[in-house]
Design goal:
There is one protein chain. This protein is an alpha+beta fold. It has 3 domains: 206 residues, no CATH class; 138 residues, Mog1/PsbP, alpha/beta/alpha sandwich (Protein Transport Mog1p, Chain A), CATH 3.40.1000.10; 54 residues, Membrane-bound Lytic Murein Transglycosylase D, Chain A, CATH 3.10.350. The strands form 5 sheets. The chain has a 7-stranded antiparallel beta sheet with strand order 10-11-12-16-15-14-13, sandwiched between helices. A 4-stranded antiparallel beta sheet has the order 7-8-9-17. Strands 3-5-4 form a 3-stranded mixed beta sheet. Helix 5 crosses helix 8. The longest helix has 21 residues. The termini are far apart. The N terminus is likely disordered.
Amino acid sequence: MKRNRPVPPRRPRLPVAAWLAGALLALSACTTNPATGERQFTALMSPEQEKSVGAEQHKQVMDEFGGPYDNPAIQAYVDKIGQRLAANTERPDVRYTFTVLDSDIVNAFALPGGYVYVTRGLMALANNEAQLAGVIGHEIGHVTARHSAERYSRGTLAQVGAVLATVLGGAEVGQLAQQGAAGVLAGWSRGQELEADSLGIRYMAGSGFAPTEMSSFLATMGRHAQLQALLAGKPGAADQFSYLQTHPPTGERVEQAAAAAKQRAPQDWETDGAAYLRTIDGMLYGDSPKNGYVRGQVFAHPSLGFRFEVPEGFRLLNGQSNVTAIAPDGKTLMVFDGAPGQGARNPAEFIAGVWAPNAPLSGTQTLTIDGLPAATAITPVNTRSGQVNARLVAIRWDADSYYRFLFVTPTLSPAADRAFQDTATSFRRLTSADRAGLRPYRLRVVQVRAGETVEDLARRMPFRDYPEERFRVLNDIAPGTPLRPGQLVKLVVAD
């Protein structure tokens, strides 16, 4: 390639130089945040813009997380706690919207402008009002500290800095500035998370909630992540299964939150465990009926009317738009979903012309699965980790729609391929009896009777693997700790 002779950068003429000076002056403007008392650069996102951005993204959150949980009493309960906390913040200009999402994922987050979300999965894990207040207070802290505006403004500053550096002749500086922008926009920083913890504790204490419960619940979420890793066959990989994975390590946050809570003047803090447990008694646990159910190795969808089964050892994960199954080795997986036929006349045509029109297919076969027309084919797939093999199976459900299995593995051995085909051919339509037997799981709060043990109550839950560990994490009961007669505990039961 022919290289052009480098041209020395010219000194900017006055209008450009004046513009650069003005831009730098505007970008360097800082204000003092009333919540943190710190000087903060948020010049490029005003409070009005925060409200607009939050309102715009609220609908996307509803779509992504299954919408609000359909229980007005629980929604009102969470809103009451949230508004109580919000009344003790430093930003009376923010009007908060608190929403319980119909998701079993343990999660909570906030959007700019005062939109705060908790999932029913997180509520199931909490054991008293103060623990829930700690989560909500933390998310309110992100709002009052204006972390979204700070992140956006600093990211834009880094991008503008890259442009300025390039204009002034420093291309390498510009590249570094762009890398800095990417880092700023990647997520909450360690300092921002700890700052939100600190503010949350302040709001808890000001509202009468026991601030020590924030650290207690952080520890519980850490144990929940460890359990999820154990259930997935990956003990020691808890960070992959925690909503805290993009946050500072749980241990550090627990220690700092506990230390901050101890600095608060002791008084009659509220925890209100009994009121909280009464509120969530009967709440859905796990999969929502509208998304179908994972039951061991079986996925069944009563409203859509089908089921299938994956091999022993595979872990089924139910999502909003698809179902995934992951093998114990973590390298072999299955993705199941539905798709429109787009005019395809048969399953083989659907695979070749609609689903994978540009893929080099081989071994195409027509099948019949539970009396429904189907087809399968094999194709190589290039990934960042190298080439893998995929088996595609399409089943025609009706004139306009297909269900499809995508099986992916590094090496399509006869054993792996047989497992894939067994999964696909296990697909069948549900009978009336099948539908009647599929019931959602719910939380039930019971009182421990004299002589009852953890093992006794854990056996009442519909889990085959690690029932005692599940029960202890759900109720925040440490290993080896016995139950007390009269104690209220949560059970998961088939409704």
